[in-house]
Amino acid sequence: MKNRSVTVSAPGKIHLLGEHSVVYGKPALLTAINKRLTVTLSPSKTNTGFTLEGQEKTIAAFQNVIEETIKDMYKLKTIPPYTAFVSSNIPLGYGLGSSAALSAAATAALLTFLDIPWDEKSVFNISYLGEKHFHGNPSGGDLATVIEGGLLYFRKEFEFLKSFSPLPFATTIENFLIIDSGKPTESTKEMVAKVGDLEKNFPKQIAEIFNKQEVLTKQLVLAFKESDEQNVMTILKQGEENLEKLGVVSKKSQGIIRSIEKLGGASKISGAGGYQNGSGMLLAYHSDPEVIYKFAKINNLNVEKIQIEKTGLRQENI
Length: 318
Ligand code: MEV
Hints:
The chain is built from nine helices and eleven strands. With about 325 residues, it is of the alpha+beta class. Helix 1 (about 55-75) crosses helix 2 (about 100-115), helix 1 packs across helix 3 and helix 5 packs across helix 6 (about 205-225). The protein binds (R)-mevalonate. (R)-mevalonate binds near residues 138, 141, 142 and 188.
């Protein structure tokens, strides 16, 4: 056990495309973004666990899952008491991968504290169970992205086989913005379950949508590789249309997205979405970001430029 503090951080993510269909074995294109969550874990006389403002209950249950998995995997009887502070500029519950970043960083910090050597794979395997706690039936795509960093092509082939490839393109597709459409009332778990119900009730129609998302996701990889801005926007637009058919985009968000399209840009939900009120952070692209900034200002919407973050999970002190 380390007798000093351990700090580990992980970035947030966005879904360029493939959210929801990725849960059903289709590919997703994701990227880590320049927002980070940091876990600082220190030995303590009393075990206070993880502290993240306003989230104590969720985190206590999540901590239990991670600890029990580590005890089981490494044949440990107990885990010495510790206290862990979580700080983050990834907004919680907006589709930017806050729970994946927390699962990965907390797992790596705890393993380091216990003097257990870890690599990306072992952190993925343990924190995937933490993600299950938050999401019920996660694809693992969010986690793979925040651990790996950069642009990532991900596919869950089976529950026991999740494959991904980093795409180190020197792309000039970089005018991405995120726009706050409001925090979804629904959790990711609920949104995944909602699509699950639809898939059960209308298997043919939903399979068709998933197939279309697969084709579009592959086309998007090529558009990125070729830095084809126009094509990126066309594909994002078509991808959004399909997400709307899945019922994961609220009327309010659809309104924002249609306005951006009219201004010559493209926009979509990124992640699980939300249908009653907000749908989380919308991803928006325009060859002239100023147009989106102006639109957001007039409509009183928070907007922010984001960048691809190359570094995934990172230990901040050795
Ligand atoms: C959530 O960020 C993305 C979903 O596709 C769920 C998942 O992949 O686990 C909706």
